[in-house]
Amino acid sequence: MNNVGRFARVLMLAAACVLPMLLGPNADAQTPKRGGRLVIAQDEGPDRIDPHGTVMSFQHRIIVNGPYEALLAIDKDLAILPSLATAWKQESATSYTFTIRDGVKFHDGSTLTVDDVLFTFSRIMNPERPSDARTKMRMLKAVTKVDDRTVRFELKSASAPFLRYMASPEVTGIVARKFTEAANNDLTKTANGTGAFKITNFTPGVNVTYEKFASYWDAGKPYLDKVELRIIPDDSTRIAALRTGEIDMTFFRPDKRPLLATLRNVVIGEAVANSTQMLPFNCEKGPTSDLKVRQAFALSIDRNAIMNTVFPGRVTRPGMAVAPADKIYGYQGDGTDLPYWNADIPRAKKLLADAGFPNGLKLTIQYIGTPAFAVDARISELLREQVARSGIDLQLVPIEYSASARNSVAGTYEVMSNGRGMDADPEGAFFDALGSAVRTKCKDPKFDAMIDAANAELDVVKRAKMLTDAQRYILENVYFIYMFSVPFRIEVWKNDVKGYEPLPQVRRTSLRQVWLDR
């Protein structure tokens, strides 16, 4: 049996094994209670609901996971599960068929059909609608109807990320054709999915209200009547709300972990290294377009000092673009083998002199200046102190959250300080709606080709090595400086919230199995 055949057989066996996990009893041994309202608070809120949006931040991913579902699903171990499709078959390296679940209803009462699936992927692949989903699904060649319950997906080439993205509602969430067309294809403020909860109110930056969808296809789910998502930027306010019972669940940046020890009657989620703190450079213009300048910047940094100062308590790890939480593809080393990991001030000064800056130079670093991203401000302050040793005068420029993506697209920056959470597939660390594998203003056709080759490799071991080599290429060219990996958020929920299962990809797809022991 060739690799394609083995791969297909493993996938089908995995589907058969995990189906009882998906549809079976709740993880808690107790009998779930029905009803009640779950109140979740988080530090930032989404500005839209559309599952096929331009740049999908974690806030957008979380809200999409409420009303929308994909043909497949994914669990905490990144295993692929059935969802709106009951089965799938890999006919060849470039052809898959999916059997659509019978009797699934959209929130408006209409029935899911093959036509809705075809419309969804036509929407995703529309060249007039650039989106994160279109970039990730660029491997698609054609989506066709086989019969009333079967759809065939033909790919341009073999694609390792394909099934993981088919299991991600924020990439391939299925929308209703008639509803979407009636809304003039604008789903930014309204939603009509097949998920366990339907959105009844959406006030950007304030709150989102979900209600139980009584006609949900997974009989007996969800247990909750309502879920309310409240936007509370201040950490102290959210901690106080947990203590008083005003909210039931929230999350915190890992630098706040010491404060969580003061909480009682809560479950504190595991701190997994599922995000990467990074410094993107503008390689198209200005001083940072010179590799020597970028190398000098990298050699001026003491990462260990920053890790231990900003995140005391050993919650950080050395990392690359793919976070260590991805046990298959993530970096698992100690950093010593990574390019420019150790500081070298004399060499940094020489590189600046060779680049035409013997007396140093001035650069700006942008970071999101909101309470939720206070870590980025602190990292930027420490960087300013460290790079000054080489003669780099680093000016700090706080910006609004929305300006981060906007400035990346426009190229109105020199250096940025930000982070990126774990995606469904490791290629998500490189690609977004901007199209290039390196992302933003360090486009490199050679690197794009490296990632394309890795994505076409279905052998997991071989693909992992190819992705590691590609990430080293980024570091050698200093398109990004991957500072270190850290938990994106640490989730906390009250003891009487049962059945919740955090995912390393920062999703809340397990809400349909949550119940309140009250």
Structural features, described:
A hairpin with a 3-residue loop joins strand 8 and strand 9. The chain is globular and about 70 Å long. It is built from 16 helices and 20 strands. The relative contact order is 0.16. The model is unreliable at 1-27 (pLDDT under 50). Helix 10 (291-298) packs antiparallel against helix 12 (345-354) and helix 15 packs antiparallel against helix 16. A 5-stranded mixed β-sheet has the order 15-14-16-13-17. A 4-stranded mixed β-sheet has the order 1-10-9-8, with no helix packed on it. A 4-stranded antiparallel β-sheet has the order 4-5-7-6. It has helices spanning 3-23, 58-64, 114-124, 132-136, 162-166, 169-172, 177-182, 235-244, 257-260, 291-298, 303-310, 345-354, 374-387, 401-410, 445-455, 460-477; strands at residues 37-42, 72-74, 80-82, 85-92, 95-100, 140-147, 150-155, 197-203, 207-212, 226-231, 249-252, 266-268, 275-280, 361-368, 392-399, 415-421, 480-486, 490-494, 497-498, 515-516. The protein has 518 residues and is α+β, with helices and mostly antiparallel strands. Helix content is 29%, strand content 21%.
Sequence-ordered SSE layout with sheet pairings:
Layout: H1 3-23, E1 37-42, H2 58-64, E2 72-74, E3 80-82, E4 85-92, E5 95-100, H3 114-124, H4 132-136, E6 140-147, E7 150-155, H5 162-166, H6 169-172, H7 177-182, E8 197-203, E9 207-212, E10 226-231, H8 235-244, E11 249-252, H9 257-260, E12 266-268, E13 275-280, H10 291-298, H11 303-310, H12 345-354, E14 361-368, H13 374-387, E15 392-399, H14 401-410, E16 415-421, H15 445-455, H16 460-477, E17 480-486, E18 490-494, E19 497-498, E20 515-516
Helix pairs in contact: 10-12, 15-16
